[in-house]
Amino acid sequence: MNRSRLTGLIAAVHTPFHSDGSLNIGAVSGQARRLASTGVRGVFVTGTTGEGQSLTLDERRAMAEAWAEHGAAERLDVIMQVGANCLADSRALAAHAEGLRVRAISAVAPSYHKPHTVAALAECSLRIAEAAPVTPFYYYEIPAFTGLTIPTTAYLEAALERIPSFVGLKYSCPDLMQLQEVLATGDGALDVLFGVDEQLLAALALGVQGAIGATYNFAAPIFERILEAYAAGALEGARALQLLTVRMVRIILRYGVVPATKAIMQMIGMPVGPPRLPYAPMSPAELAEMERDLRAIGFFEHIAR
User: How confident is the model at residue 2 (pLDDT cuts 50, 70, 90)?
Assistant: First the structure.
């Protein structure tokens, strides 16, 4: 089992659809090539940005197979998000991912019938991880979507004790005070992948080394410069670039992350199709408004550098 830390930028990739809503597997190779060319080091597949919970099991398997093939071709680490409300589905996806020899699996907690105790959440994670025993397991912490209120550090301590393949988590939560506690859990043994793009600089200052985000699909050049500026101690420049990403995210949030980021992919010449219901595509007026606002902050010039 490869327990080395994942570092740098990892894109939470979109699931590409045709205009009729069916999977467009053929688009994955282009996504992989583009990401590799921008310095992204890995991909997080069928997560929130990838609309994983809106895909069938067969579609999720197809995405795993496509990314295992094209990610490897571009030397990208592939992390498969296998969480689902049905634990048996999660286990099936985990076993399938291990058969593809992906770099890691990750699982979001069940969010309809929720675990309400640390023990229950740890047991769910254990059952999933057991189905892929030689593949590193990352918990996916995203309380805005799951609605879970279980203390993260208490869960992490239980997972470290009970799950042999447990190596860390995707932390998609803006609570930086809790992030410090997470980073200290297990005497710093956990690989913490930060998932709030517009707070990356703050997370770096706290000790984060890797990040997973939706905007790395198209704005990786900006974030790569943040990483470089931070490493060089050029904090003023890093702060200016992070502020640019804050303004970018403010614009995106007006329309919803999935519809807006898919629309931006179209704008930069890497179409990944429309979102799937319950999301709706942006209207022509919204697209024009968003493009105007992105141009006003210099977004397209910055991602071209």
Answer: confident
